[in-house]
Amino acid sequence: MNPATILICICSYFIILFIISYITGKNDSNSTFFLGNRNSPWFIIAYGMIGTTLSGITFISVPGWVASSQFSYMQMVFGFFVGYLIISRILLPLYYKLEITSIYAYLNQRFGLRSYKTGASFFLLSRTIGASFRLYLIASVLQFAIFDAWNIPFAFTVFVTIALIWTYTYRSGIKTIIWTDALQTTFMLSTVFIIAFILMRNLDLDAISLFQVLKDSDYSKVFFFDDWTDKKYFFKQFFSGVFMAIVMTGLDQDQMQKNLSCRNLKDAQKNMFTFSGILIFVDLLFLSLGALLYIYSNKFGITIPQNPDMLFPNIAINGGLPAFVGILFIIGIIAAAYSSADSALTSLTTSFCVDIIEFEKQEANKQIKTRKNVHLLMSFVLFCVIMLFNAINDDSVIKSLFTVAGYTYGPLLGMYAFGLFTKFKVKDKWVPLIAILSPLICLFIKNSLWVYRKIAFNNIKIEDNSLGVIEGLIKSPFYSQSIYDLCEKASNIGFELLIINGLITFFGLYLLKLDEKK
Fold first, then answer.
1. Residue 496: strand, helix, or coil
2. d(C-alpha 310, C-alpha 290), whole Å
3. What is d(CA 269, CA 256) in angstroms, rounded to the nearest whole number?
4. Around Cβ 427, how many Cβ atoms within 10 Å?
5. Segment 209-214 long-range contacts (CB within 8 Å, at least 24 positions apart)
6. pLDDT tens profile 265-318
7. Whole-model pTM?
8. Max alpha carbon distance in the chain (Å)?
9. How far is 383 from 154, CA to CA, in rounded Å?
């Protein structure tokens, strides 16, 4: 592909975003930036949230999962649907009743100031790492596709990437993002549909024959009930999906900020119900595309990359398809990444202003200036974290950081569950300690089980004498094959670790409860 052609297409795409920003950004009040004046159309929010939820990582990764996981991801998607229903019936009424800008203000009213700051800080940490990771990926794609050919440094690519987001969000924030997300979702889904259609045409398939081919393939199995130790086991995936939806949407300022911009609670609930239904079909579309990509590769002898994440990019760019398919892919992944990143920047600005520095205590004429300065600061923080990822230059380390960021949603789950389902007050000053210990305990459990079974099976040779005691205990008469088998199965903990994390926080808060009831 010609880098200049790609750049022209990307520039055209952003011109459209800037036009939307100009139309929606005539009012730069804080009410507009944070909540869109609580006047946003619910159906536009529902549609735009598809792009925000999927992100660039999903755009690339979900099709690649099909070979190893088949359609088992749909089990988690069905769990998402239930989780979104819980959000619409329990969390949204709470947020609207409290009339809050930041959802973490609930923790202040329920437990106290330190709990409130802890919840907001965990969100800021999680979203900063998550947004930086996604932007790092898209900046890497742009560097490879365009800027390497012109010897432009990666730092400049990152700067341009973040500057573009800042430019069309700094005035009206969520009011602009609601409409740009809808546009970006359209670009993303159109890309998938068009590429799928081209693949079907090359395979001489129509819609009916495609359904039959997918049904007869080895990729389309959805439900797994046979082995409870398997990561694909239905109840593991389903309940993980339920709780992931609750924490990564219902307890996430990024997603809830859009819902709070609806005209009223009823509209927000209609938004969540519509969005959750659409998401089922969209995820099924991505999985079907993944199966189609593997079938296409097998038929035309295309080498399947060792990294399954590269399957979709490889075929779109190097799979013998028309040149415009590669351009469509670039536009699609940019749309997917930016629809997640722009709302992340806005929500980070919101949470830092409202939760951390409590800027609402300032004089009214100073608040807008403070918000704009924080917006610029958050952009700079994202730039620094992305450059840190680039300096690390180790995919496994970077992905581990992204995984660790996911652990920090567990304490939020435990805190909200304790607040909603008990009436106990807690010793507020100790809540930060519980929130920090909970994910650390989960990391210890998961890694300890893995080390145990590896040492017991003689897969790890201990050189350090200080670890000899551990090896001796594991290989002592207390060790049994049944214990090893249990550890081997338990060390395959996947998404359900989020539930364990939340439970640890819940019981930690129970230990901190006061005798009096609220």
1. coil
2. 11
3. 11
4. 15
5. 210/288, 210/292, 213/295, 214/288, 214/291, 214/292
6. 999 999 999 999 999 999 999 999 989 999 988 888 888 877 777 788 878 877
7. 0.83
8. 74
9. 11
CB environment 116-152: b (16+ within 10 A), e (fewer): bbbbbbbbbebbbbbbbbbbbbbbbbbbebbbeeeee
Contact 389, 161 (CB under 8 A): no
Q: Choose among 449, 494, 63: nearest CA to 238.
A: 494
CA distances from 282 to 37, 59, 358, 471 (A): 30, 11, 39, 49
Radius of gyration from C-alpha coordinates of the chain:
24
Contacts of residue 212, Cβ cutoff 8 Å, sequence gap at least 6: none
d(CA 173, CA 350): 9
Other Cβ atoms within 10 Å of 90 Cβ, number? 14
DSSP characters over 218-277: SS------S-TTSTT-HHHHHHHHHHHHIIIIIT-HHHHHHHTTBSSHHHHHHHHHHHHH
In whole angstroms, give the CA distance from residue 359 to residue 473. 55
- Three-state SS string over 269-311 comes to HHHHHHHHHHHHHHHHHHHHHHHHHHHHHHHHCCCCCCCHHHH
Tokens for 453? 């079974």
Helix orientation angle between 395-407 and 113-145, rounded to the nearest 10 degrees? 150
| Under-70 pLDDT residues of the chain | 1, 56-57, 393-403, 405-406, 448-495, 516-518
Residue 157 tokens read as 């690519």
